[in-house]
Amino acid sequence: MKMKGFSLIELMIALAIIGVISSIAYPSYQTYIQDTYYAQARVDTKVCAQALGRFYANGFTYVGGAAQCTLWSPASGTEAASQYTLTVPTATATDYTVVATPVSGACDGRCYSEQADGTESVF
Predict the structure, then answer these.
(1) Which helix (H) or strand (E) is 72 found in, with range?
(2) Sheet strands side by side (includes 84-91)
(3) Nearest 5°: phi and psi at 73?
(4) For residue 3, pLDDT beyond 90
């Protein structure tokens, strides 16, 4: 009578292969997720800049215009689930700056700002 099934050694080899593949794939996946959140923060910063532009068109000042912006990203989600915080640290009558910073962790090249004249910077 012939036995059917897997031996313990075959099962351990399969688990080892899965472990190696997982150890390679997981960091790549995390980087992909962070890139996606960063891209969304840039888009939400531009949406805030457009809202500030509309606010300026109505009153010829940017002062108080931050209330027109969703100050977290992704803006389509809740503030509790946000990955980036959007701030308007400078809003004068003729100028503004919108800054996106990660909720947790350092910037490490993943912070973004945009000014009224269209100047963008990554830091």
Answers:
(1) strand 72-73
(2) 72-73, 84-91, 96-102, 112-115, 120-122
(3) -140, 135
(4) no
